[in-house]
Structure formats: structure tokens, C-alpha cells
Design brief:
By secondary structure, this protein is mainly beta. It folds into two domains: 1-31; 35-273, Neuraminidase (6 Propeller). It is 10% helix and 47% strand. It contains one helix and 23 strands. It has a four-stranded antiparallel β-sheet, with no helix packed on it. It has a four-stranded antiparallel β-sheet with strand order 5-6-7-8, with no helix packed on it. The chain has a four-stranded antiparallel β-sheet with strand order 9-10-11-12, with no helix packed on it. Strand 13 and strand 14 form a beta hairpin. The longest helix has 28 residues, at 3-30. It is globular, with a radius of gyration of 22 Å.
């Protein structure tokens, strides 16, 4: 074998090694998507999938109806928590700003800075498309107009580490829970922006809140590792599910009539049929 042939073989082997390394690296980067401290769930009506924010790695994953996970977006986000879909956009709370993500392009189209924010948490919208964002560290609720980017804030002694919130459309109010000891359920009147206590509770560290099609209210408690339900009569609490460890921002999925629960510390999503 002449010297030229040996050099060609060395070059080919080196190229194969580089290709193999590239495949291994891409496999790690683009390999099977995994949940990493899942926090919030939203329904992507454009692509027909569920979106899951992951605090552990700053990524948002999509999940199809068979439970298969894919990377939705993994760049430009540090600490994604609450999410809200107002098609064609997804709004994501990320520390001190609100990202606006194009659902079709799967890219951040703009980011809205929220002055005074410390740790933005859950995101909800009213009937007019205004966004309401809790801040667990600043003890505030921020109201964001996505069209004008104007931001106003609401503060109150009642807001002690506000966490999950949900829009109660028939009464035009937001229901809010706090990540604190013996957290009451609060109500924010959207006509006056006045805060008041809706229901006192004995439950600690409430994270998420959701309302089903019949108007029943669900809250998740880290302190009790449980999901509680308030029936339509709104006259009592029922322990709906027990032994639910680290239940984060719960989400009612109307198409399947299920309550979806991100289990933050177990890195999985639990689904419960709503009867």
C-alpha cells in the first residue's frame, strides 16, 4: 500500500470518527425529550398538542394525545413557569419578563419586560385578552396589555406568595391561590381590581387552581399532597385526590374532560378523569 492510499484511509477514518461524534452529540441534544420539573400546562390549539413548561432546564415541551414528548422551544427562555395560549401566540412567564411565542414558528416574537417583577409565576387572560400574571416573590399581580405592552400592578396584604390563578368567566373575576400556610382562595374583581377572600382554607402551599365545565373548582396543595374540589354549591371542600406529591399548576383540559397535574418533583404528568 502506497503512502497516498494510507493517507486516504486515515482521512476517511478521521471523517467517520467525526461523523460518529456529531451523531452522539446531536443524540444528546435532540434525543428523547424528558420532563424536568414540569410546572405548567397549556393547550396549543394551532398544533393540537399540550405544552409543558419545565423549570429544571428552561425548555417547553409538546405532548401529543399518545403522551409522546417533543421539544417545542429551548432557546431564549431561562425559567418558564405559567403559560397561556391566545392563538396564534403562547405567553410564557419567565422571571421578570413575559415572552410572546409564535405557535406556528415556535420562536419568541417579542419579550415584554415587567417592571417591578421578581419571579413571575402563573398567567391567565380575561375575556378581552388582557393578561394577569402572579409574582410569587414580589407579592403582586401584574396586568399586561399584550397589544400596547402597558403594565400595571396590584398589591395587597392578602397577596402572600401568590401562585396559581384562573379566570371565572361568569362572574368576571380571577380566583387566586397562594403558596403560603393556610392559604385562602382570593378573588380579584376585574371591574374594580379589588381583592377579597373567596374561601378560607386550612391547606398549605397552594400551587394551582382550575375550573371545569360545570363550574367546580380544583386546587392543588403541596402541604397536603392533594387535590381539593369545591362543588357547584361552593359550600365545602372535598378531598378529590390524595397522595399527589408536588402537584404544580393544574390544568383542566376540556376536550378530554381531564384534570392534568404536573408532578414537579416526580417529572411526570398525571391525568384524572373529571366525572
Amino acid at each position: 500500500m502506497n503512502k497516498l492510499s494510507k493517507n486516504r484511509i486515515i482521512i476517511i477514518l478521521a471523517a467517520l470518527v467525526l461523523i460518529l461524534l456529531a451523531i452522539l452529540i446531536l443524540g444528546r441534544i435532540l434525543g428523547p425529550a424528558k420532563l424536568n420539573k414540569p410546572e405548567s400546562i397549556a393547550f396549543d390549539s394551532v398544533n393540537g398538542t399540550l405544552l409543558i413548561s419545565n423549570v429544571g432546564n428552561g425548555k417547553i415541551l409538546s405532548m401529543d394525545d399518545k403522551g409522546r414528548l417533543k421539544l417545542f422551544i429551548g432557546k431564549g427562555i431561562k425559567n418558564p413557569r405559567g403559560m397561556k395560549v391566545l392563538a396564534p401566540f403562547l405567553y410564557v412567564a419567565d422571571r421578570t419578563q413575559l415572552h410572546v411565542i409564535d405557535l406556528q414558528e415556535k420562536k419568541i416574537s417579542q419579550s415584554i419586560p415587567v417592571e417591578g417583577a421578581k419571579m413571575l409565576n402563573d398567567v391567565e387572560s380575561d375575556r378581552y385578552g388582557k393578561l394577569y400574571v402572579t409574582d410569587t416573590e414580589a407579592d403582586r399581580i401584574f396586568i399586561v396589555n399584550p397589544g400596547t405592552r402597558q403594565v400595571q400592578s396590584i398589591s395587597s396584604p392578602l397577596l402572600k406568595s401568590p401562585n396559581g390563578l384562573v379566570y371565572d368567566r361568569p362572574r368576571n373575576q380571577m380566583l387566586i391561590v397562594c403558596f403560603s400556610k393556610g392559604s385562602p382562595i382570593l378573588t380579584l374583581n376585574l371591574d374594580t381590581n379589588d381583592l377579597s377572600v373567596f374561601k378560607e382554607t386550612l391547606y398549605d402551599n397552594l400551587d394551582g387552581i382550575a375550573i371545569d365545565d360545570l363550574g367546580r373548582i380544583y386546587i392543588s396543595s403541596w402541604g397536603e399532597n392533594a387535590i381539593y374540589m369545591i362543588p357547584q354549591e361552593q359550600n365545602r371542600f372535598i378531598q378529590w385526590k390524595s397522595a399527589v406529591n408536588s402537584p404544580a399548576d393544574i390544568y383542566y383540559h376540556q376536550p378530554t374532560n381531564e384534570l392534568l397535574v404536573p408532578l414537579f418533583e416526580q417529572n411526570r404528568i398525571e391525568s384524572f378523569k373529571v366525572e
